[in-house]
């Protein structure tokens, strides 16, 4: 069965960096595009990033463009989100998600919590 | 970026009531829209894609409609397990954008 497990969250001071990982299993990872979505505490969902199956095409939300970078290692079935120059409004639960059959986000991980605070 | 305006932000209804949530896009998006349900402490769950296609396993009391700029999610007979926050998401072009969410409660 499809499984997505995020890791790498934590507390980080403003201006610092953090890298999230999303370990995928239960499907042929290299064949699928992937997304990152986040949710600030008590707030709504915000789409963050897209990465193509081969990692060559990426899109980002305006709020993270130039600071966040999505990447993937298809040999290790792992998706990454490198987050630089973190700000307080980046505090959120970060989900990886996959459009598996529908074109929309069929499967989600459980999320990794990132807290940006001094 | 395409803006998605969702309404209402919250509602309360009785068990068995018909509930409708609307989502309006700032420009035409054909039928490139999905609806998600999120219960507290859980990841979102896809209910509907392509504006009106019910994902396999989702109860038939959920339905979606609309195209271009105006979309609806309808719960034909509200059940206690439907208590959740609902979001629309446009996948017409990048960046994808969510609506602000509608919190559905029981009266």
List the helices and strands and how they pair.
The complex is a heterodimer of chains A (118) and B (107).
Chain A (H helix, E strand, L loop, with lengths): L2 E5 L2 E3 L5 E8 L8 E6 L5 E7 L6 E3 L7 E6 L4 E6 L8 E7 L8 E2 L3 E5 L2
Parallel strand pairs in A: 2-11
Antiparallel strand pairs in A: 1-3, 3-8, 4-5, 4-9, 5-6, 7-8, 9-10, 9-11
Chain B lengths: L3 E4 L2 E4 L5 E7 L7 E6 L6 E5 L3 E2 L7 E6 L2 E6 L8 E7 L6 E2 L3 E5 L1
Parallel strand pairs in B: 2-11
Antiparallel strand pairs in B: 1-3, 3-8, 4-5, 4-9, 5-6, 7-8, 9-10, 9-11
Keywords:
A: 118 residues, mainly beta, B: 107 residues, seven-stranded mixed sheet, four-stranded antiparallel sheet, 50% strand, globular
Quick structural gist:
By secondary structure, chain A is mainly beta. Chain A has no helices and 11 strands.
Description:
The complex is a heterodimer of chains A (118) and B (107). Chain A is 0% helix and 49% strand. Chain A is built from no helices and 11 strands. Chain A has strands at 3-7, 10-12, 18-25, 34-39, 45-51, 58-60, 68-73, 78-83, 92-98, 107-108, 112-116. In chain A, a hairpin with a 5-residue loop joins β4 and β5 (45-51). Chain A is globular and about 40 Å long. The model of chain A has no long low-confidence stretch (mean pLDDT 97). Chain B has 107 residues and is mainly β. In chain B, strands 2, 4, 5, 6, 9, 10 and 11 form a 7-stranded mixed beta sheet that branches. Chain B has a 4-stranded antiparallel beta sheet with strand order 1-3-8-7, with no helix packed on it. The model of chain B has no long low-confidence stretch (mean pLDDT 98).
């Amino acid at each position: 069965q499809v499984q997505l497990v995020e890791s790498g969250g934590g507390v980080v001071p403003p201006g610092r960096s953090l890298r999230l990982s999303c370990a995928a299993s239960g499907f042929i990872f290299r064949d699928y595009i992937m997304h990152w979505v986040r949710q600030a505490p008590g707030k709504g969902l915000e789409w963050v990033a897209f990465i193509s199956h081969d990692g060559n095409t990426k899109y980002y939300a305006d709020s993270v463009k130039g600071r966040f970078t999505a990447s993937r290692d298809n040999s290790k079935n792992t998706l990454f989100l490198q987050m630089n120059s973190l700000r307080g409004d980046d505090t959120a639960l970060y989900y990886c998600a996959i459009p598996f059959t529908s074109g929309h986000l069929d499967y989600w991980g459980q999320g990794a919590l990132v807290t940006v605070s001094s | 970026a395409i803006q998605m305006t969702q309404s209402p932000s919250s509602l309360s209804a009785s068990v068995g009531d018909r509930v409708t949530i609307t989502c309006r896009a700032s420009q035409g998006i054909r039928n490139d829209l999905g609806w998600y349900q999120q219960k507290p402490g859980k990841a979102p769950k896809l209910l509907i894609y392509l504006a009106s296609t019910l994902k396999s396993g989702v109860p038939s009391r959920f339905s979606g409609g609309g195209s271009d700029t105006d979309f609806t999610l309808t719960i034909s007979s509200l059940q206690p397990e439907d208590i959740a926050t609902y979001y629309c998401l446009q996948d017409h072009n990048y960046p994808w954008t969510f609506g602000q969410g509608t919190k559905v409660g029981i009266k």
